[in-house]
Amino acid sequence: MSATPATSTPTSGARHAAAERVVRVARREGIEDLALKVVAGERLSREDGARLYRADLHAVGELANYARERLHGDRAYFNVNQHVNYTNICNKLCRFCAFQRLPNQAGAYWMTPEQVEAKIRAQLASPVTEVHMVAGIHPKLDYQYYLDILKAAKRARPSIHVKAFTMVELDQIAKKAKKPLEEVLPELVAAGLGSCPGGGAEVFADRVHQESYHLKISGEGWLATARKVHQAGLKSNCTMLHGHIETIEERVDHLDRLRLLQDETRGFQTYIPLSFHPENTEMADIPGPSALDELRELAVGRLMLDNIPHIKAYWILMDVPVAQAALSYGADDVDGTVVEEKIYHEAGATTPQEVAREELVRWIRDAGRVPIERDTLYQVVWSDDPSEATLGAAAPLSG
Amino acid sequence: MDSSPIEDGASSAAHALGVLGAQPLVGGHPPQRASHASSGPRAAEVARIAAKVEDGLRITPAEGLLLHDHADLLLLARLADLVRIRLHPEGRVTYIVDRNLNPTNVCITDCGFCAFYRRPGEEGAYVLEREEIHRRMQELADLGGRQVLMQGGHHPRLKTGWWAELCADLRARFPLVNLHALSAPELDHLAKLDKRPVEEVLKDLVAAGLGSVPGAGAEMLVERVRKIIAPKKTTTDRWLAVHRAVHEAGLRSSATMMFGHVETHAERIEHFERLRALQDETGGFTAFACWTMQPEGVPQQELYPSKATPGTYLRVQALARIYLDNIANMQTSYVTQGLKSAQLTLRMGCNDFGGTMLEENVVSAAGCFNLAPIDKLEAQIRRAGFMPTRRNSWYGIVDERLGAPSGPACREEAATHRAARLGKALVGAGAEA
After folding, report:
1. Contact flag A10-B33 (C-beta cutoff 8 Å)
2. CA A163/CA A259 separation, integer angstroms
């Protein structure tokens, strides 16, 4: 159903009624105290967070939806983006990953800067505003390579925002550069880096690090790297890979540590819970989260991360039904058109690898939200509400 | 809010905390005008209707439409979940071990949304040999199957006698497998071929062992819509009349809706209303299922330019649970909507996963049965937090893990029609009761 724009902003009375409803629903499910905190804009404790994981899904959803609506009204964001996974060669051997290949293994690949450039050029006819560039840790790629692929991207499409390199890759790049990350980051920016994605955070707890991804930087290492990124003036996203061996308390710990860093730097734009996909991984015996678990993870994220503006329901890994429903359970963003997702498709994701911009708009409208096309930094690129269309850079929607 | 009086201390507590003055910890754009949002312009009306549902009251068509267009999915989900818990508090999600068996794909109805049928004499048209039907039935029976869903095209020469003979044959050979067969348009088609009332057709079929009737062919029970999408098929009034006759003949049936094509939102509500009214009268529907039109590969694809999104399916399914307060069971449609949607619907009103729809692919080359599809289906239910439970066609529980069967065990125990309960309408049915 199309969202019918109303002319007035919500009245304080309506807002009050929404608060009353949230508190009433929460009371029935034993989390009235949490609802009162949310309504008052108070921070939830770690103990509160653990209770959110155990309380009724719809009651938690009501709280998260209230918090989302206070920040974003009826808006839901998407972008027109493209993925470039420049290599799948990796020496980190993470047990939850189906994308990695050893250097001589069948299917292993890495792209030359020219190939990266060609991949981006191939999309010139489509109104892409962002390239999302992440990959494995290929031990033989030198520092210059990373600078070269950034330059290649900008050469192919000067207007594009390059969101590249997770904290794990940045750690590797600094090692290859043989100098501190603080000195490397300005050089990457000069080569074209615009911001950083949020991957590689997994679950920060040392136990999980030891058992499932011990060759990669630890939770503490990830956070320290993100701090440096933010201090260099770059924005980044953040993530949590949930639904494998971690406990509820370890999830809460993860969210709390993200929140504390955000208090310090204000550098995170968006939190994206990543669902573990078991297929073709060493942990294939673990079923992975259900659609209902995914909704809850988004809702808890919205409630605990009170200082991170956006919560993303990454449609390509959760699938469209969950992404649409998520817009009522705390999420305000569904990610983008993507164009060739590889990492989750190696782990059994059955979603299409790309989607038309018009489809994203329909999904959002059908979920009762007002679609806003954003750029990487959440500037409005397009909206059917003229007052929102501040940039107006994108092609008009067909139909 | 004026229509939802403060019931206790909660709102005043919220007030004391300075609700309206509370600021979020992060900045965003200023709140935007809302349509579905809880603080939208219709919020007070939506809240009033929500309160009715919470209190167990029936909603009107106008209220149904208002919820459809203005309630947030979260609210619909929560209300539908409430209704589901009231009707099914045990934390179970049922399913039936069954298979599809289409004795023929020959059809003269020419529905533009159907990719299954063939015209008589067309390439690929078939009528299954009896041996083939027996073979498939045996596979199902060996697997503990409880139901065969037999539907086919509207074949111009297969009359009631052919179907009755088939039913009697299968009942005798496979007594534990219920014959869930012949949708309303097919029954209507048989009546036309026979040139006699559908009541008489049903009498013969019931005597031969027909156990229940599927809800297919309802599509949208709105004449404007049927004229566009299925002009040659049974009309709305006729579809309902056939189901009334089915219920009066002592059989239960299910109800369906195929939406997301040319219908309006109000017409979706009209469909619900027609079903609810008949159910008030007969009580004969066991369950309701709905799905969105699947336009890929159908003959008149141009009629269906875009497919309804999953969000619309979730919204309509939740609303169905709220509106159809007199139909006990809601089936999720995992085959058409996918497992992700199906899991979500288990907290949005549905309590049943429908049939396992075992098909050829479950039988390995060696002739052994592969239970993986059933295991997978059960795993999906468990991961959504429910206990998977096997049922029969009448929603009686037949699951060894739960001990003795409970609920109706056969069509006679399930019949809602008074005369049928007394055994008067079931001519010749005594032998199998």
Report:
1. yes
2. 22
Q: Which of B176, B410, B392 is nearest to B423 (CA)?
A: B410
Q: Which two tokens stand for residue B7?
A: 């019931």
Which one, of A23, A27, A38, A31, lies nearest residue A70 by Cα? A38
Widest Cα–Cα separation across chain A: 65
d(CA A213, CA A77): 32
CA–CA distances in Å: residue B128 to residues A379, B174, B367: 62, 18, 20
Evaluate whether A261 touches A223 at the Cβ level (below 8 Å).
yes
Chain A residues in contact with B309 (beta carbon < 8 A): 320, 324, 362-363, 366-367
A77-to-A280, A331, B210, B347, B392 alpha-carbon distances in Å: 32, 10, 53, 26, 46
ipTM of the complex as predicted: 0.90
Which of 185-244 (B) contact A at CB < 8 A? none
Cβ of B36 and A61 within 8 Å?
no
Chain B CB contacts of A21 under 8 Å are 38, 47
Contact: A321, B383; criterion CB under 8 Å: no
Residue type, position A370, single letter: V
B255 neighbors B215 (Cβ within 8 angstroms): yes
Phi, psi of B410 (to 5 degrees): -155, 175
Residue B338: closest CA among chain A residues belongs to which residue?
A: A321
Residue in A with minimal Cα distance to B45: A14
pLDDT 10s per residue in chain B (433 long)? 333 333 333 333 333 333 333 444 444 343 333 344 555 678 889 999 999 999 999 999 999 999 999 999 999 999 999 999 999 999 999 999 998 888 888 888 877 777 778 888 888 888 999 999 999 999 899 988 999 999 878 898 899 999 999 999 999 999 999 999 999 999 999 999 999 999 999 999 999 999 999 998 899 999 999 999 888 888 999 999 999 999 999 999 999 999 999 999 999 999 999 999 999 999 999 999 999 987 776 777 777 767 889 999 999 999 999 999 999 999 999 888 888 999 999 999 999 999 887 654 333 333 334 455 788 889 989 999 999 999 999 999 999 899 899 999 999 999 976 555 554 444 434 333 3
Size of interface A-B (CB pairs under 8 A): 229
Mutation choice for A interface testing from B12, B19, B55, B353 by most A CBs within 10 A:
B19
Strand ranges, E, within B102-199? 147-150, 178-181
DSSP for residue B21? G
pTM of the model: 0.89
B69 touches chain A (CB under 8 A): yes
The shortest CB-CB distance from B14 to any of A23, A69, A318 is to: A23
CA separation (Å) from A389 to A361, A380, B298?
Answer: 15, 6, 39
Residue B412's contacts (CB-CB under 8 Å, 6 or more residues apart) are B250, B420, B421, B423, B426, B429, B433
Contacts of B29 in chain A (CB under 8 A): 72-73, 75
Strand partners, B213: B253
> Which residues in B lie closer than 8 A to residue A62 (C-beta atoms)?
74, 78
Q: Please name the amino acid found at residue B197.
A: P
> Which DSSP string do the residues of B282-300 spell out, in sequence order?
H--EEEEEEEE---TT-TT
Q: Which residue of B has its CA nearest to A64?
A: B74
Contact state of B344 with A321 under an 8 Å Cβ cutoff: yes
Residues in chain A with CB shorter than 8 Å from the CB of B69 are 1, 4
Q: Quick one: how far is CA A120 from the chain centroid?
A: 21
Q: Is B405 exposed, middle or buried (0-12, 13-18, 19+ CB in 10 A)?
A: middle
Residues 371-390 of B with CB under 8 A from A: 379-380, 383-385
